[in-house]
Specification:
It contains three helices and seven strands, in the order H-E-E-E-E-H-E-E-E-H. The protein has 182 residues and is α/β, with parallel strands linked by helices. Strand 5 and strand 6 form a beta hairpin. The longest helix has 25 residues.
């Protein structure tokens, strides 16, 4: 009788231990969605993206308090955010069939991201400045927008972040298009 209780206790202990050591599967996200809306005349090319250090971890980030950010443990960007921003802008510009060219009048854009994360209420923010070097002078501007996630969870956070980058790309493209040197 005693050996069967001993074996049963060991089996229960092993089952509990294995349940505790099962880690969630990491998930990886891209900062693009096959952009659908384009800019009429797109000659822009993002050449540099600057990020605050909290966004250089490779993980998604949530604001959990007034001054507190939490880096996700199992939700990561599949590529650096710098590359993601560059590619997302390029996709926005290419969607009209006129990708960023290396022509003489082509602005070279620098994006300086100040804030790019969600919060526990489902709000997602992108705050960034941008500069464009153009043949007729430099242009600069800023983009500040907060939108709501359509549902809860990290996939919805990423979807909202993708929308924000698309909105910024359209905004920058339209402002530069109106300032093209003729």
């Amino acid at each position: 009788m005693m050996p069967s209780k001993y074996i049963l206790s060991i089996a229960v202990f092993i089952a509990l231990l294995s349940a505790c050591t099962t880690a969630p599967t990491p998930r990886y996200y891209l900062l693009d969605s096959g952009f659908e809306k384009g800019i009429q005349k797109s000659y822009q090319k993002v050449t540099r993206v600057r990020l605050p250090s909290y966004l250089q971890t490779g993980s998604l980030v949530l604001q959990v308090g007034p001054q507190e950010l939490r880096v996700a443990s199992f939700h990561f960007w599949a590529e650096s955010l710098e590359q993601g921003f560059e590619r997302a802008f390029d996709m926005a510009f290419e969607s009209t069939g006129q990708e960023g060219s290396s022509g003489k009048g082509s602005p070279r854009i620098i994006v300086d991201v100040k804030r790019f994360h969600g919060d526990l209420t489902g709000k997602v923010s992108l705050v960034a400045d941008w500069q464009a070097a153009m043949s007729c002078g430099n242009r600069e501007g800023s983009f500040t927008k907060t939108i709501a996630q359509t549902e809860s969870g990290y996939p919805a956070l990423v979807a909202a972040q993708v929308r924000l980058v698309e909105m910024m790309a359209v905004d920058v493209g339209e402002k530069l298009e109106s300032a093209l040197c003729l």
